[in-house]
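Hi R.,

Here's the chain you asked about this morning:
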Amino acid sequence: AENSDDKYHGVNKFDGYEFEVFVHNPADTNSISNNWIYSVVEDEDANIWMATRNGLNRYNPRDNKFEHFKSEQSNGLFSNEVNGILVDSKGNLWSGGYGGLSKFDGNSFTNYSPKEGLLNHFVSCINEDNIGNLWIGTISGINKFDGKNFQNFDVDDGLSGNDVLSSFADAKGRVWFLPFNEGLSYYERGTVHNHRSEPWLAT
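And here is the predicted structure, written out as tokens:
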């Protein structure tokens, strides 16, 4: 384990019968890169991606090895501290964290920052709606990204709070947001609704 991350015990794999625990081993380049894991997602090839405090990890269940993706690599990540990850409907892997938003197409990363229209460098969560738009939660509000342009939403647009911790896209086309220490908000047909405009959200 790694210094202050010793209390974070890596990741557990359960095959239906027993658990196998994977932790960082500095002597093994095929081990997970960090024991502090924020989120996990599976891609279309059955690889397991993990967002950690020290880069992205791709776990190949066929050989039981971890491949690392970091900011110092050529065409690399925006930052090594990764919070949210998503595999979209086109098979692209999106990741967000303390440096912005990254898209991995299987070969290289494309990075997005406020220079490209992102609200804030700190990305907390990523979701895709039922028509392929990405919704990126930040500490300054929500970005809607259609693949070309960012559209921003914050408290002035009806969001109940700007520091968005998580989001969820439902089957009806609505996208739900949970800001820190505030009530739920949701987006539907061009409008953001919150517990002040929709009192039932507060119940």
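One quick note: The CA atoms of residues 40 and 118 lie 23 Å apart.

Cheers,
M.
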